[in-house]
């Protein structure tokens, strides 16, 4: 006998006789603990929220596909990139970085741009942002950086002094700060912004030859941004503006799309290029390494359930497939651990088994048990390796390609400390109107900083990037550029 599909049931499938009134001792008596349906509802309600992401808590997502439009098989053996016309299903999550789950979409903040490709060789996650660089280049600084973006532990308010204190003491942040404070700091919609892998990765072809690679997703909708006034107005009137815009566009068939390009660098160039190619605070010149088209990403289906698909989606730059490896980028190296570890804490040890994260190909391994193991847990199959019972074994041809390393084990900084050239180049590329808005945004953001020494220290960084840049910020704050750097 089965329950009528229209009947409300408990989580164990029994029909519910009354969902409007608790069981009590008489009409006015206390509630009875034997009302197991009531207890189940309240207990489950208390546990409906998994811990929100420490960063990238507010996000929106969509399903789609990636289609290869150019032959890149000379550079990578990744199966999903193997032939022109090949389509691979995917899921994308866009997000703000610093705000909480209920924060406004239209704040000045980088946007996460995470793509999960469901390939025949397993999932491949490309976890980037809408900017080609980042604030820091060593993962050991990441917790401190994020603390400055969050709330002050005493006031529980955002703290501009902490933000600019950290940035002024971390000059490698200048390039990203200049992008963030420019027009690009507030995208008009999630559809009208580019995406970047940001880090340097390694592609390896079928012959075992490798190249360094950077990813660029170029929006086919065109880049559009919001002015601070409009963004603030939208934040008050519709804090979910970006989420709503993406959903409505897809729902009405206006499917957003991006072209994927890569920059390719020969391995040996890494030793002689004028910037460290593994430093995520730097870009590669497109004159030196032109964009090469790879394919096209289209988002054509909204999630059916936000929690199951967007909130429980987990991404990690360590989710790789044969033909795509990592680089010595120190920030990337830290993320390889931190992202998956965050998901194990937030969603559970078996987060990869959830439908939104589960690979489309068969999974064969010896991982067992753990919370929320909802499949057959490996059944009665052999549960260790090596074994004598025909269990799955490694395939040596899928080892990551080797590369030489050398040096003394030590806490070592990057060799190159030019934090100003690329930030200055960016400033000089801007039109006069764009420079004016950039400076105005910086001045407005720095006005609440409590210590003048922090403002002066940051002004020095702007000045070293471009004297006009630093002077205009100083003038806007009613300060003078320190004489020792003029």
Automatic annotation (TrEMBL):
It catalyses: 2 H2O2 = O2 + 2 H2O. One of its GO terms (molecular function) is metal ion binding. Residues 1-28 are annotated as: Disordered. Heme binds at residue 339. Residues 9-393 form the Catalase core domain. CDD domains: catalase_clade_3 (cd08156). SMART domains: Catalase. One of its GO terms (cellular component) is cytoplasm. Its cofactor is heme. One of its GO terms (biological process) is response to hydrogen peroxide. It comes from the Bacteria. Residues 1-25 have a biased composition (Polar residues). Its EC number is 1.11.1.6. The active site is at 56, 129. Keywords: Heme, Hydrogen peroxide, Iron, Metal-binding, Oxidoreductase, Peroxidase. Belongs to the catalase family. This is Catalase. It comes from Priestia aryabhattai (Bacillus aryabhattai).
């Amino acid at each position: 006998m089965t329950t009528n599909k229209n009947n409300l049931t408990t989580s164990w499938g029994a029909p519910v006789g009354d969902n409007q009134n608790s069981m009590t001792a008489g009409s006015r008596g206390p509630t009875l603990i034997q009302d197991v349906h009531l207890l189940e509802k309240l207990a489950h309600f208390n546990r409906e929220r998994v811990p929100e992401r420490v960063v990238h808590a507010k996000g929106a997502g969509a399903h789609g596909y990636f289609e290869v439009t150019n032959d890149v098989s000379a550079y990578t053996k990744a199966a999903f990139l193997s032939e022109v016309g090949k389509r691979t299903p995917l899921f994308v999550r866009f997000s703000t970085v610093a705000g909480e789950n209920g924060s406004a979409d239209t704040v000045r903040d980088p946007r996460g741009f995470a793509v999960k490709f469901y390939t025949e060789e397993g999932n491949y996650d490309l976890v980037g942002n809408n900017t080609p660089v980042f604030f820091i280049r060593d993962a050991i600084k990441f917790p401190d950086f994020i603390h400055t973006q969050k709330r002050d532990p005493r006031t529980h308010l955002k703290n501009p002094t902490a933000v600019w204190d950290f940035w002024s003491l971390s000059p490698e942040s200048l390039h990203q700060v200049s992008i963030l404070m420019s027009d690009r700091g507030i995208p008009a919609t999630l559809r009208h912004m580019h995406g970047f892998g940001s880090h340097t990765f390694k592609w390896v072809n079928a012959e075992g030859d490798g190249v360094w690679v950077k990813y660029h997703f170029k929006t086919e909708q065109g880049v559009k941004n919001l002015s601070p006034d409009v963004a603030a107005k939208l934040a008050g009137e519709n804090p979910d503006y970006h989420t709503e815009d993406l959903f409505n566009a897809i729902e009405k068939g206006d499917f957003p799309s991006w072209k994927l390009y890569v920059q390719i660098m020969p391995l040996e160039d890494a030793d002689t290029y004028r910037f460290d190619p593994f430093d995520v605070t730097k870009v590669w010149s497109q004159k030196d390494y032109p964009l090469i088209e790879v394919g096209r990403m289209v988002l054509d289906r909204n999630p059916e359930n936000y929690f199951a698909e967007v909130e429980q989606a987990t991404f990690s730059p360590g989710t790789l497939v044969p033909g795509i490896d990592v680089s010595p980028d120190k920030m990337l190296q830290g993320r390889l651990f931190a992202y998956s570890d965050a998901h194990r804490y937030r969603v559970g040890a078996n987060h990869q088994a959830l439908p939104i994260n589960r690979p489309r190909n068969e999974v064969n391994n010896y991982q067992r048990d753990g919370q929320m193991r909802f499949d057959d847990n490996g059944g009665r199959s052999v549960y260790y390796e090596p074994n004598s019972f025909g269990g799955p074994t490694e395939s040596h041809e899928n080892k990551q390609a080797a590369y030489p390393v050398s040096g003394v084990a030590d806490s070592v900084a990057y060799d190159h400390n030019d934090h100003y050239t690329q930030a200055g180049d960016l400033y000089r590329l801007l039109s006069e109107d764009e420079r004016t808005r950039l400076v105005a945004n910086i001045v407005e953001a720095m006005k609440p900083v409590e210590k003048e020494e922090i403002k002066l220290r940051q002004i020095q960084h702007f000045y070293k990037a471009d004297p006009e840049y630093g002077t205009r910020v100083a003038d806007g704050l009613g300060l003078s550029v320190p004489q020792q750097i003029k």
